[in-house]
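[step 3/7] inverse_fold.run input=structure_tokens len=528
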């Protein structure tokens, strides 16, 4: 995995070094301070809507595509546009834009993509938004990028699943998206002769990039879409021969959390648990190697725990300032993670993890929103900051803003997860690749206690204004909330199977108890 990261991100670094420097010192205003207790819902709404603006008001004027970064001129990004399209669906659902305007924007994007450079159906990482011509990502990377194409198609298929109207505009949009998807030759990128799926192909340099799409990283969605393709599917053997590597199914413990998939220490930067899971719902995914919800939550908790307890103290990390992922930094773009850390925090790291760790992510969101006002601009939080170096970015990156919008929506409503996971071809592909519904026993199956205090920290869901716990019962039984002295606060009957229990009570520490005919499972929860 280290080799993969070095290869992949050296490309970003090459571009950063070759172009003009995109980071500037931004001095924090001395009057920044917490003056009010703003409701969580207000903050979440503001941050999600402002971040969406990058893909709406900040999009390329003629193509509608997402700018690679806010200063990139005509350079637009395919993968980042896919994230933005998922955001357009969320924004339409929330009434921030009209359905008609959304369809018109998506139509513009689709017609641009139809005429843009493609390489055996795959788009390059970057395009010129005015001409549709490839903008080389590096010397040899001037052709198709299958992973970025997958992020783009993922967003388009979510849009196709959402815009189901019978009118001509929505019907034509769905048909256009289908045509674009069917034109991607996923199988070509597995035609080198070694039964592996490759990230890049160039008409000028052929397979010179030589980067198989091997796990674990951000690219799982590529295999799902390739296997689901109605026109150019890959064989399952390609998935097993390329994606599945020695780290799959091997337990390793980092910062007190045990995971079953890792390819390098701390299982990489946090975007590994964001990009593919804009559409893929990890709550529904399990295979012979891991439970993907537990894997993702523990990935976030490992990253957070390193920041709080393992990083150099002068970096200034805290419970309200953590999160390492690929982002700008004071020395340029890098894939920040516990094994490659210089004190740079990217808001997208914690914010896009809110579906996994609502309370911990909200601590960061609130802190930045109330205390780091210089970091907040018209499209939400700028890309990164480094307290120890007195540095703040003044740029936005599509691949960082997009997951904020999408993953906040998945936390709030599950909309994008529901749309994508209900696509019949996706269901079939997941089964072919060995995924199945998680096998559960009585317990709090989505909860992972914080290792330092052994509790599950909960906040009220911002829209429902209730505490929520997802539980599973092998037989019908009861959910009981008890004070630390054993006093019962509430009791709820629970049917066998998966249930979301909701409750309202005062903040504090409680014991949550599931009791069935032969089960008595407890979990300490801290209500905030």
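[step 3/7] decode complete -> sequence:
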């Amino acid at each position: 995995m280290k080799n993969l990261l070095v290869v992949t991100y050296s490309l970003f670094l090459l571009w950063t070094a070759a172009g003009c420097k995109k980071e500037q010192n931004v001095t924090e205003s001395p009057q920044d301070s917490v003056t009010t207790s703003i409701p969580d819902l207000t903050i979440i709404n503001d941050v999600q809507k402002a971040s969406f603006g990058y893909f709406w008001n900040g999009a390329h004027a003629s193509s509608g595509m997402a700018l690679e970064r806010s200063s990139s001129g005509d350079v637009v990004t395919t993968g980042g546009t896919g994230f933005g399209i998922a955001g357009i669906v969320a924004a339409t659902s929330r009434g921030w834009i009209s359905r008609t305007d959304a369809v018109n924007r998506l139509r513009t994007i689709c017609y641009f993509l139809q005429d843009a450079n493609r390489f055996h159906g795959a788009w390059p990482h970057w395009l010129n938004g005015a001409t549709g011509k490839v903008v080389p990502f590096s010397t040899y990377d001037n052709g198709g990028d299958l992973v970025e194409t997958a992020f783009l198609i993922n967003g388009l298929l979510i849009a196709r699943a959402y815009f189901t109207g019978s009118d001509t505009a929505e019907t034509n949009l769905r048909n256009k998206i289908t045509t674009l998807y069917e034109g991607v030759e996923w199988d070509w990128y597995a035609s080198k002769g070694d039964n592996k799926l490759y990230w890049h192909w160039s008409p000028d340099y052929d397979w010179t990039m030589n980067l198989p799409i091997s796990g674990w990283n951000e690219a799982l969605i590529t295999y799902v879409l390739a296997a689901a393709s109605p026109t150019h599917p890959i064989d399952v053997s390609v998935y097993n021969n390329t994606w599945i590597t020695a780290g799959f199914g091997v337990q390793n413990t980092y910062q007190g959390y045990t995971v079953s998939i890792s390819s390098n220490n701390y299982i990489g930067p946090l975007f590994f648990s964001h990009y593919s899971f804009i559409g893929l719902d990890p709550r529904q995914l399990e295979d012979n190697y891991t439970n993907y919800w537990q894997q993702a939550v523990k990935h976030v908790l490992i990253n957070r725990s390193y920041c709080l307890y393992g990083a150099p103290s002068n970096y200034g990390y805290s419970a309200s300032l953590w999160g390492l992922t690929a982002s700008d930094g004071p020395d340029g773009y890098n894939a920040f993670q516990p094994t490659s850390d210089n004190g740079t925090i990217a808001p997208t790291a914690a914010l896009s993890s809110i579906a996994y760790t609502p309370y911990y992510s909200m601590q960061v969101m609130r802190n930045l929103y109330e205390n780091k006002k210089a970091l907040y601009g018209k499209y939400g939080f700028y890309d990164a900051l480094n307290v120890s170096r007195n540095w703040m970015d003044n740029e936005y990156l599509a691949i960082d803003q997009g997951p904020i919008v999408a993953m906040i929506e998945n936390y709030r409503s599950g909309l994008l997860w529901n749309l994508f996971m209900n696509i019949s071809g996706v269901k079939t592909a997941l089964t072919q690749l060995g995924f199945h519904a998680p096998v559960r026993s009585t317990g709090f199956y989505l909860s992972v206690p914080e290792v330092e205090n052994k509790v599950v920290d909960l906040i009220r869901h911002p829209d429902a204004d209730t505490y929520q716990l997802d539980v599973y019962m092998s037989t019908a039984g009861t959910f009981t909330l008890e004070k630390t002295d054993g006093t019962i606060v509430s009791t709820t009957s629970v049917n066998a199977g998966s249930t979301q229990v909701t409750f309202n009570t005062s903040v504090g520490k409680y014991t949550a108890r599931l009791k069935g005919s032969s089960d008595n499972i407890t979990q300490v929860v801290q209500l905030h």
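[step 4/7] annotate
The chain has 14 helices and 21 strands.
The mean pLDDT is 93.
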